[in-house]
Amino acid sequence: MSAPTAPPAAAARQNRVSRTPMQWLVLGLCAVFAVVMLAPFLLLVLNAFKSGADYSSGGPVAWPKSFTLDAFRDYMSMVDFPRALWNSILISTVVAFAGTGLALISAYAIGIGRVKGSAVILAVLLLATMVPHEALIYPLFYGAQETGTFNTVWSVIIIFTVLQAAFGTYLLSSVMSTVPKELLDAAGIDGAGRWTILWKIILPVLRPTLSVLVVFFFIWTWNEFYIPVVLLSDASSQTVPIALSTLRGQHSIDITTLNAGSLLSLLPTLVFFLIFQRTLSHGVTAGSIK
Amino acid sequence: MTTLRKAGALLGVAALALATFGCGGGDDGGSGDGKTLRIVQYENPTSAQGQGWQKALEIFKQKHPDVEVKFEQTSFDAARQNAKITLSGNDVPDVVEFNKGNADGGQLAAQGLLEPLTEQVTKYGWDKKVTGAMSAFAKYSEDGYAGDGEWYGIPNIGEYVMFYYNKELFTKAGITTLPTTQAEFEAAMDKLIAAKIIPISSSAATSQGFNQMWVWYSLVSAQASRQQIDDFMFVRQPVDFKAAPWGDGTRKFQEWIDKGYVGDKLGGLSFEQATVNFLSGKAAMLIWNNGEFARIRKDAKFDWDYFTMPGANMTMGSSGHLWGVPAKASNKELAYEWIDTTLSPEVQNEIGKLGGLPLAGDASVITDPITKKFTERFNELVQADTLTFYPDYPVPGFLDFIQQHMQAMSNKNETADQYIDTLQKFYDDGKGK
């Protein structure tokens, strides 16, 4: 989103006086677009601080008569949020780093090393990420039960480390195949072994891509619902999205509490994104200019 | 480079953790020592039933001080989606709450995942408390059809569908007496339209827009007999949807849409938005069940009351969700005692006082007049055996099918006769016997 706005802004700074009507138009459109993008989030914030009666009489869009923290209080009393937050952070962090690490190692073998049938291996890995989770759930459930990890966060950590690493391997191995062969040859002549090449040559080159993977894996794992909801039925191992889903009845919804809960659930990912957004935007464009 | 080292360290930790847990084996679930009771349910803890169960927990713990009770909260959707998987595992709860109907409870019973309760029902006398139509979805045949066979579930409460109405808007439109027949009801709605007030707040989004479906099925129920509903619901006799009550009810439904009784632009609205439209005074009535009773009491800024469909033979309504004991549960005796505790007079009356429509409560102990009247009306309907359940129970996938057609009819893309034709086909293909 920031890419298209950058050139007109830069041009304006150089030459403040002459902003052409076209540039004003683009700026205006960008502002409208930003508001439209933010609107659902703003609505969520607004309704999280409304009282139930205010919401019922005015609807979601109306400005409330007073702001209240009741919805947050209700949410905290109905759900063990700190516990769910800790579980989510633990699962997402471990998966993000372990998945990226595993992907790096396996991609090194496929992208740099020579493995017979590497294309087939990649296809299989890609397939694993494309199969709907519903199709995987029975084997995963029985697997978790046999290993004694059912109802513990470790079942979910293992599964998502593998699933995310499968995607990561596919991505990284194709990035690694673009690393110039001369670089590797030069390192080899200098006496670097395979291990040294991975840590000293490949890793620094791929760092931006790896950071993006860590961020993506974190957010994807954070938002996962289906597999965790099956494997983590116990309240003590629930994640944030599952805790949130317990608020929904069949024939009644407490909208303000749901909004408060959603806002609380969203904040950690938002904070995470803000901290890492520099790495993110760097990583996305990394390799585009060579 | 430091972040990398950290990453490496974390990787090591993770690997270690995997190794430990991999070798750990794990416990074999409940050991059946009669010392633990694990309950998994999905009722909102602030609802009448949820609070009643808190009381049941107190009573149970007093009676069994040496038993560790785990009372776990899950969601309706999660319980519904996962019941088959989790109940087939080793580590199953001792008591579960599950959804009634052939597609949910019926499947669990047919696959042998639930323990038949018939023996316990006689032993504890639960059939004295759960009677008539309220017990219909507690029993399933070997093939998983509701209506008769062994008992697999025990409901605690019931529910019924009503029209909540805004007294101030009724007065404004010049409606002085409440309608007692369908003709009077339509005349009242004509007056509301003349006063530029939307008569019924409704919704027809394919996801969560259930109000139109309830209007339609209420109109069908209004002309139906017990026999006709049971044939449809329990797939006993072939159903001719062109004939009464189906054909007439559906055509009446189209008439109501065309006359604007249910408002317009319903295709994107959910039941939550329909409720807000009623509470904000945009519409004079809301069709819904007791699920929003407590909220309307709390949030309505106007004088309100409610009535069931005027002049109707039968009314939409059913028993609540069911308690079941998984076939693999290890502490079944405690599970039966828990179910019995939730049907005890103390717990049932507590649910009743909070407006939760208990099946075995005593309405005379309720002091609040609105709640009392509301409960007495329910007891009347149960005693007369005129509740018609929800229309999506008989066939798997029926809810999505009905919702799509409710949306099409509300958008005036489909006529009553077109709907009846596809409904006939879907029902006959899907009923499976």
From TrEMBL, chain A:
<dbReference type="InterPro" id="IPR000515">
    <property type="entry name" value="MetI-like"/>
</dbReference>
<feature type="transmembrane region" description="Helical">
    <location>
        <begin position="120"/>
        <end position="141"/>
    </location>
</feature>
<keyword id="KW-0472">Membrane</keyword>
<dbReference type="InterPro" id="IPR035906">
    <property type="entry name" value="MetI-like_sf"/>
</dbReference>
<keyword id="KW-1133">Transmembrane helix</keyword>
<protein>
    <submittedName>
        <fullName>Carbohydrate ABC transporter permease</fullName>
    </submittedName>
</protein>
<feature type="transmembrane region" description="Helical">
    <location>
        <begin position="153"/>
        <end position="176"/>
    </location>
</feature>
<feature type="domain" description="ABC transmembrane type-1">
    <location>
        <begin position="85"/>
        <end position="276"/>
    </location>
</feature>
<keyword id="KW-0813">Transport</keyword>
<keyword id="KW-0812">Transmembrane</keyword>
<feature type="transmembrane region" description="Helical">
    <location>
        <begin position="256"/>
        <end position="276"/>
    </location>
</feature>
<feature type="transmembrane region" description="Helical">
    <location>
        <begin position="84"/>
        <end position="108"/>
    </location>
</feature>
<feature type="transmembrane region" description="Helical">
    <location>
        <begin position="24"/>
        <end position="49"/>
    </location>
</feature>
<dbReference type="Pfam" id="PF00528">
    <property type="entry name" value="BPD_transp_1"/>
</dbReference>
<comment type="similarity">
    <text>Belongs to the binding-protein-dependent transport system permease family.</text>
</comment>
<keyword id="KW-1003">Cell membrane</keyword>
Automatic annotation (TrEMBL), chain B:
<keyword id="KW-0732">Signal</keyword>
<feature type="signal peptide">
    <location>
        <begin position="1"/>
        <end position="19"/>
    </location>
</feature>
<dbReference type="InterPro" id="IPR050490">
    <property type="entry name" value="Bact_solute-bd_prot1"/>
</dbReference>
<dbReference type="InterPro" id="IPR006059">
    <property type="entry name" value="SBP"/>
</dbReference>
<dbReference type="Pfam" id="PF01547">
    <property type="entry name" value="SBP_bac_1"/>
</dbReference>
<protein>
    <submittedName>
        <fullName>Extracellular solute-binding protein</fullName>
    </submittedName>
</protein>
